[in-house]
Amino acid sequence: FSTVEAARRFGIPAERVFNCQTQADAATASFVREALRSAADDPLWFVCAGPMTTAHRYLAAVRAADAGRLRFIHCVSHSAANGRHDPQHTW
């Protein structure tokens, strides 16, 4: 519940918080919506924490929707371990 509690404390509506494993489609759609709003003067900062499979899914969905938006997404890793969980989807 820590993510939900953090969202509450920062004033983020609960309906904008997703479990990327059990709500994969909704989480992906939400990420794509935000990515399509990104621009050079308002980039999307994406903190990649954990196996990169989910990050790759999101970025592939953005590429399919509007590949040009990828240049406005800044990915940040919290750990070198991100590249070791899934050999198919590395940092």
Question: How can the largest sheet be summarized?
Answer: 2 strands, parallel
How many helices does DSSP assign? 3
Structural class: alpha+beta
What distance separates the N and C termini? 27 Å
Q: Which H/E pattern describes the elements?
A: HHEHE
Outline = globular
- The chain-level mean pLDDT equals 89
Please report which band the strand proportion falls in: under 5%, 5-15%, 15-25%, 25-35%, 35-45% or over 45%: 5-15%
Unreliable parts: none
Widest sheet, order of strands: 1-2
- Taking all Cα atoms into account, the compactness measure Rg is 13 Å
Helix share bin? 25-40%
* Number of distinct beta strands: 2
Topology:
Layout lengths: L1 H8 L14 H14 L6 E5 L4 H14 L6 E5 L14
Parallel strand pairs: 1-2
Helix pairs in contact: 2-3
Provide a descriptive summary of the structure in words:
- The structure is a single chain.
- The protein is of the alpha+beta class and 91 residues long.
- The protein is built from 3 helices and 2 strands.
- A two-stranded parallel ribbon has the order 1-2.
- Helix 2 (24-37) crosses helix 3.
- The longest helix is centred in the middle third of the chain and has 14 residues, at 24-37.
